[in-house]
Specification:
About 30% of the residues lie in helices and about 30% in strands. It is of the alpha/beta class and about 200 residues long. It has eight helices and eleven strands. Strands 1, 2, 3, 4, 5 and 11 form a six-stranded mixed sheet that branches. Strands 8-7-9-6-10 form a five-stranded mixed sheet.
């Protein structure tokens, strides 16, 4: 099997600003990898089989939700092996277009897992309609593309900064100590660099 490229390609589910991107940067560092952005979990897991990526970084569990739906089921079906893990603190923020206020907002986009982590917020604001999106970072990109003050997203502060959006409410997740675990996966027999299996920060 050919050796892994000098700059490893790491597949994540989501766009720039997603929590998966933050986990990858925490594990590898800013300059060391080429991120392979995948829209869905099936695409994420398939990317290593079709040669798009050398590693897959997949969310496996969350302190509020437990096993991450969609990801864990696919992980159980794959022969990929975990060689490292990273634990990421997840603060969910309500993010909107610049100039929008909470009173303007009618619909809130985000990944279903992120929406579920903020169930108490939606109970406190029943007029807000949650809408499923592919990922957290992508939901911020979408509301900024539409420039509609009625639309908001739930995502990280980093996502708001990347896309030029505004944070309306901070840390709206149900529990302050909210963490997601990610597993770094490779195919059996892959000639991966052992430093990626050993150096990752886990907390």
């Amino acid at each position: 099997m050919s050796s892994v490229p000098q700059k490893p390609r790491v597949a994540i589910q989501g766009e720039r600003g997603s929590f998966s991107e933050q986990a990858a940067l925490k594990l590898f560092g800013e300059e060391e990898i080429e991120l392979v952005l995948q829209r869905t979990f099936p695409a994420l897991y398939h990317s290593i089989f079709n040669g798009e990526a050398d590693y897959v970084l997949a969310p496996t569990s969350n302190t509020i939700l437990g096993p991450v739906p969609g990801s864990v089921e696919l992980l159980r079906q794959t022969p990929m092996l975990p060689i490292n893990q990273v634990r990421l603190r997840v603060n969910q923020h309500l993010i909107a277009c610049p100039g929008a206020t909470l009173d303007d907002i009618a619909m809130v986009l985000s990944h279903p897992a992120a929406l579920a982590q903020c169930s108490r917020f939606f109970k406190e604001h029943p007029r807000l309609k949650p809408l499923d999106a592919e990922d957290t970072g992508g939901s911020v990109a979408e509301i900024m593309r539409r420039r509609d003050k009625r639309l908001a997203a739930i995502a990280s502060r980093r996502a708001a900064e990347i896309y030029g959006a505004s944070v309306i409410r901070t840390s709206i997740q149900d529990e302050e100590d909210n963490f997601t675990e990610f597993a770094l996966l490779v195919l059996p027999g892959t000639n991966f660099d052992m430093k990626y299996a050993l150096k990752g920060k886990k907390s």
